[in-house]
């Protein structure tokens, strides 16, 4: 019985030796020791490196294109030739893996050769990377950036707002960024950059949101002249995530000694409540809340309170005192009035 095998010092021969994604690749498999009367059945298969899946690419000269819009595989075998060819045109970055040429003859004898196909490609960050994520204040979290490419990509993490990563509380291990005991300062957009000798891949961005209890920064006091038909406004920066619900109240006297009560403030002809989100350079996860008191009168003087509530956290309060001044401080005129004269 004749003996047959496949031999080459490298097994399957690739042309070119260092194939790149997007280029044409010819893989040759040579079989020796067969007689002209032997019938043989040749199969090409690929065990992909990225997901471990095994695909049959071609059987003899019939190829499987996997419903690709443009056929890119071709299998060739010349008459009475010991050489079989599998042509990738173009080569895809997902073709990296174990490429096998397997032969079965009439007597069901089976031999095969396998060679690892390295596909040189610039990096691309995979969808399996960490997406937008929420954690609580004090938690630890690991951000993952999965990148594909050959040579193996180098991963770099950056903060999109250009603030440095918190020293001592961050550790990068390969493609993972580990953050310990996070706080509101860690909130923001994180970018992962993958690079290798071929080039830079696409960036991957994600938002890290840290849930934390509300807190408030307000002016302590605001002065304005009364009975000049001018307005006054007071402002507070309200921090918290999720964004807190904000309300305003005024302290009033009940007419009895040491007896006071609070009344809720709503938008009306007397009050205007506004909320805006400042630029990220000013603050993150904050709201600028402004209360405007229209046509300030003597009765408007006193203490004003802002309340911030967020589900799962205690409420937070801020206090601003409106006092009387002899002259106008904020030149906000009520509608068509002349203001301070």
UniProtKB/TrEMBL annotation:
Which compartments is it annotated to reside in? Cell membrane
User: What name is this protein filed under?
Assistant: Ig-like domain-containing protein
Limits of the Ig-like domain: 123-209
What lineage is on file?
Eukaryota, Metazoa, Spiralia, Gnathifera, Rotifera
Q: Which organism is it from?
A: Adineta steineri
Glycoprotein as a keyword? yes
Keywords (alphabetical) are: Cell membrane, Disulfide bond, Glycoprotein, Immunoglobulin domain, Membrane, Repeat, Signal
Cited Pfam families: Ig_3
**UniProt cross-references to InterPro entries, sorted A to Z:** Ig-like_dom (IPR007110), Ig-like_dom_sf (IPR036179), Ig-like_fold (IPR013783), Ig_sub (IPR003599), Ig_sub2 (IPR003598), Neural/epithelial_adhesion (IPR051170)
Coiled-coil zones: none
Instruction: Give yes or no: UniProt keyword Signal.
Output: yes
Where on the tree of life does the source sit, at the highest rank? Eukaryota
One Gene Ontology cellular component annotation held by this UniProt entry: plasma membrane
Q: Which SMART domains match?
A: IG, IGc2
């Amino acid at each position: 019985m004749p003996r047959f095998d496949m031999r080459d010092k490298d097994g399957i021969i690739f042309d070119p030796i260092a194939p790149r994604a997007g280029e044409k690749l010819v893989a040759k498999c040579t079989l020796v020791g067969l007689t002209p009367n032997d019938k043989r059945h040749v199969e090409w298969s690929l065990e992909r490196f990225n997901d471990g899946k095994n695909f049959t690419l071609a059987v003899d000269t019939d190829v499987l294109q996997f419903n690709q819009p443009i056929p890119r595989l071709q299998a060739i075998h010349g008459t009475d030739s010991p050489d079989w060819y599998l042509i990738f045109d173009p080569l895809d970055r997902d073709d990296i893996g174990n490429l096998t040429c397997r032969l079965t003859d009439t007597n069901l004898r089976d031999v095969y050769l396998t060679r690892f196909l390295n596909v040189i490609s610039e990096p691309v960050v995979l969808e399996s990377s960490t997406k937008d994520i929420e954690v609580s204040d004090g938690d630890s979290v690991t951000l993952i950036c999965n990148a594909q490419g050959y040579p193996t990509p180098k991963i770099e993490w950056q903060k999109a707002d250009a603030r440095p990563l918190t020293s001592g509380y961050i550790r990068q291990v390969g493609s993972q960024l580990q953050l310990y005991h996070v706080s509101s300062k860690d909130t923001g957009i994180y970018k992962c950059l993958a690079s290798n000798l071929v080039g830079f891949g696409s960036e991957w961005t994600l938002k890290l949101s840290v849930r934390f209890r509300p807190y408030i920064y307000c002016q302590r006091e605001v002065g304005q002249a009364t009975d000049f038909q001018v307005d006054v406004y007071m402002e507070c920066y309200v921090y918290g995530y999720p964004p807190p619900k904000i309300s305003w109240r005024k302290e009033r006297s009940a007419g009895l000694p040491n007896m006071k009560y609070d009344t809720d403030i709503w938008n009306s002809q007397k009050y205007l409540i506004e909320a805006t989100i400042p630029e990220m350079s000013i603050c993150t996860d904050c709201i600028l809340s402004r209360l405007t008191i229209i046509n300030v009168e003597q009765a408007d003087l006193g203490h004003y309170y802002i309340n911030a509530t967020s589900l799962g956290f205690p409420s937070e309060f801020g206090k601003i005192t409106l006092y009387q001044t002899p002259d106008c401080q904020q030149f906000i005129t009520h509608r068509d009035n002349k203001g301070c004269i």
